[in-house]
């Protein structure tokens, strides 16, 4: 079970880690994502799930009530997939996308920063859709971590380009500072044998070294049958 797994392995939670859980699902992604984030938080804190509940700020950002107030969380769902992020470090954002064929070159030129668009369009055509989603999920996550979504030029906000490509499946890159915004870090991982992309971001405030350096991602797939 999710709860015992976290109580056994992560009592109190690791202070430098963002825990990311994801799974595929055959429907009701929103409810299952809410269940997963509460149970993950309960496992990290070593308390019963009944001691934690999920609320939302006026702008829609999810927050935990009860025993979970010390944690920051984010929730994402796409058709047939969901992901949650839990950490005690700082405001966090997560996004998940199903890999599918896109008009990635045209979309990159229309919406992304020119340097990002140049990177996507220079890749082989078969890689471009995944690469676009690798950037897109990070931008969505950054917007969530900042509490403003993609408003105020969120799509053109630059995120770090990968050190190498293709990114290894199920091997998250190390979160890195956003160009021009050292208080935010982001990363992405291709999971599920290349079928999904998850982006994660953390907002530690201007010049926050603690949230920009040494952050680890603990990304795990969980069994959807555990969510009811």
From TrEMBL:
Residues 91-152 form the 4'-phosphopantetheinyl transferase domain. Pfam families: ACPS (PF01648). GO terms for biological process: lysine biosynthetic process via aminoadipic acid. It comes from the Bacteria. The keyword tRNA-binding does not apply. One of its GO terms (molecular function) is magnesium ion binding. GO terms for cellular component: cytosol. The keyword Transferase applies. SUPFAM superfamilies: 4'-phosphopantetheinyl transferase. Gene3D superfamilies: 4'-phosphopantetheinyl transferase domain. Keywords: Transferase. Belongs to the P-Pant transferase superfamily. Gsp/Sfp/HetI/AcpT family. This is 4'-phosphopantetheinyl transferase superfamily protein.
